[in-house]
Amino acid sequence: MKWLEEIRLRTQPQKEKEVIEILLEMAESVNKNKEPGFASVYFHQAQPGGFSLILQWNTASIPMNGSNTAMLIIGGIESLGLFDHTVMVESGKTVKVNFNGRTVI
To answer: Could you give the domains of the chain?
Structure first.
């Protein structure tokens, strides 16, 4: 099943260069990894310091709270500013089940 994670980060404009380097490095690491994912970084069109890191997945199930990769990335960027993490799936293609004590889609 195809699904996406968006990690949005809002930081101070003066930290923008540092944040760009960190996010691009993280995206490159995900893309080199053997996991079934792809990562890309987007920048806010009009507001300096606004970023989104998009993780694209194609897996048999979807963890309710997102991937372990996203949790590791969030741990690395949470000190850089405000962040939000969203898991997105295609409409009408989900079923919730319990698997080893975790709810997955």
So the answer is: 2-104 (3.30.70.100)
